[in-house]
Design goal:
about 45% helix; five-stranded mixed sheet; D-Maltodextrin-Binding Protein, domain 2; 2 domains
């Protein structure tokens, strides 16, 4: 019922005839809330979008970080804000698709408490390590995990984050045991990974790419079924012996519930304009972000499918936090 209600809400928001260019937008500043620390993939995506929206709308558009609980704290905060469009959430897989299955007492209901606006992009995660790790191929990592069960460490941006679920899916498919180390965002996790305090991470390509390019980290594999154009020389986990393996990260913009349909349509149109800007498209492509844009209802359907997918992984892997 919730899934049908969520998709129906998206349809209602998109069913109006074309709205005039002056369809209502917030009169004052707009905040885009991010559930992770600065420097992570979600934060990077939000800042790329916010800068362009500020110019397009003629009002300040700022990014506000509320890190913790795999993005749940930020999502709960936005769910309680007025539905006038002045506070948006750069949501991602963690708080909109994974958290509902992972947290038995989640303070919000995705279908009831949010208005989907647009999918910004889908990126692979990169399996990465620092340059001092001796096991730097997927078969070697699997062998290491089997030789030292429960001791090889994999960092993530937080319990329930996409990196966490990638680890759990990897453990299921490879039949290995490894130790998950959650952080309050990608930035502190990457600091420890570079410094050798943890061994590996399935980090978002968005935040991992600069460190791989600088030579501080090594990219071992990527987690979408096909290779990203941004990392064409990095093999997929599927290629390396695990067909169908898909642990993508995705980002999207949502608002609180009960946003006016005209505002939803206007924002969706403007978000699509931003994604089509050559410099934005180039920036997102460099981070492996693909398949973004489209209608609000398309995003609602996408979220519903992702919720079902990750609920099965949480159940099969017996994940608890």
């Amino acid at each position: 019922m919730q899934r049908r209600h969520f998709i129906a809400s998206g349809l209602a928001a998109c069913s109006l005839p074309l709205v005039h260019a002056q369809a209502p937008l917030p009169a004052g500043p707009v905040r885009i809330v991010v559930g992770f620390s600065p420097g992570g993939g979600t934060d990077v995506m939000a800042r790329v979008i916010a800068q362009k929206l500020a110019t397009l709308w003629g009002v300040p558009v700022t990014v506000e970080n509320k890190a913790g609980a795999g993005g749940v704290i930020a999502a709960d905060y936005v769910a309680k804000q007025p539905g006038d469009g002045s506070t948006l959430l750069m949501t991602n897989i963690s708080n909109h698709a994974i958290a509902p299955a992972l947290y038995p007492s989640l303070p919000y209901v995705v279908e009831r408490d949010f208005t989907p606006l647009m999918l910004v992009g889908v990126t692979p995660n990169l399996l990465i390590c620092n340059t001092s790790q001796p096991a730097r191929t997927l078969p070697d990592i699997v062998a290491l995990c089997r030789a030292k069960p429960g001791t090889v460490t994999f960092g993530s941006a937080g319990a329930g984050a996409s990196q966490h679920m990638a680890i759990e899916l990897f453990k299921l498919r490879a039949n290995v045991d490894a130790l998950h180390i959650p952080y309050k965002g990608s930035s502190p996790m990457l600091t420890d990974l570079i410094g050798g305090q943890i061994h590996y991470s399935f980090e978002t390509m968005t935040s991992a790419t600069p460190h791989v390019a600088s030579g501080k980290l090594v990219a071992i594999a990527q987690t979408r079924p096909q290779r990203s154009k941004a990392q064409p020389n990095v093999p997929t986990v599927a290629e390396l012996g695990y067909p169908g393996f898909d642990a993508s990260t995705w980002y999207g913009l949502v608002g609180p519930a009960r946003m006016p349909a005209a505002t939803v349509q206007r924002m969706n149109e403007d978000f699509n304009k931003v994604l089509a800007m050559p410099d934005v498209a180039e920036k997102l492509a460099s981070y492996g972000a693909e398949d973004g844009g489209g209608t609000a209802v398309k995003f609602a359907e996408f979220i519903a499918t992702e919720k079902d997918k990750w609920a099965k992984v949480v159940k099969d892997a017996k994940v608890t936090v």
